[in-house]
Design a protein that fits this description.
151 residues; mainly alpha
Length: 151
């Protein structure tokens, strides 16, 4: 039994430098590799999370701006339609006024032409009546051989 303890003691003594070396490697790796690597991963995760949060905020802001733009665009479109309708209505009123004016002018011209024509007809009838009387006297004088009204 003393031999086993002596073997175990030798084995323990020979493993102490290995355990010490592993412990030193653990401390070195932890200090120079794992802590900086963990810090970089943590920082990257925070930045990624922050970027995702900012992207979501920007998406919400973009949607809000899109809604505002669409509302403004719709209001502008309605204003253009209203102005176009007002211009069309004004143009129709102007056209109706011009047509009414032309209608009144043409009626006045027709009445004037009718009056002028009636005056010409009356004048022509008077002239025809005088001509008929003169012609009737001449015909009667030729037929009767004398001139009427010569007396």
């Amino acid at each position: 039994m003393g031999g086993i303890l002596s073997i175990l003691a030798d084995l323990f003594i020979s493993t102490v430098p290995t355990v010490f070396f592993v412990f030193v490697l653990f401390v070195i790796f932890n200090r120079f590799l794992f802590k900086p690597l963990t810090a970089v991963v943590k920082k990257r995760e925070e930045e990624t999370t922050g970027a995702v949060a900012r992207a979501r905020e920007q998406a919400v802001a973009s949607e809000e701006k899109t809604r505002q733009y669409e509302a403004t665009f719709q209001a502008a479109r309605q204003e253009v339609y209203r102005q176009r309708e007002a211009a069309r209505h004004s143009m129709l009123e102007d056209r109706e006024a011009a047509l009414e004016k032309a209608r009144r002018q043409s009626e006045a011209l027709v009445k004037e032409a009718q009056a002028s024509l009636a005056a010409e007809v009356a004048q022509t009838q008077k002239e025809l009546q005088v001509s008929c009387q003169t012609l009737g006297r001449e015909i009667a004088g030729v037929v009767l051989g004398t001139r009427l009204g010569e007396g």
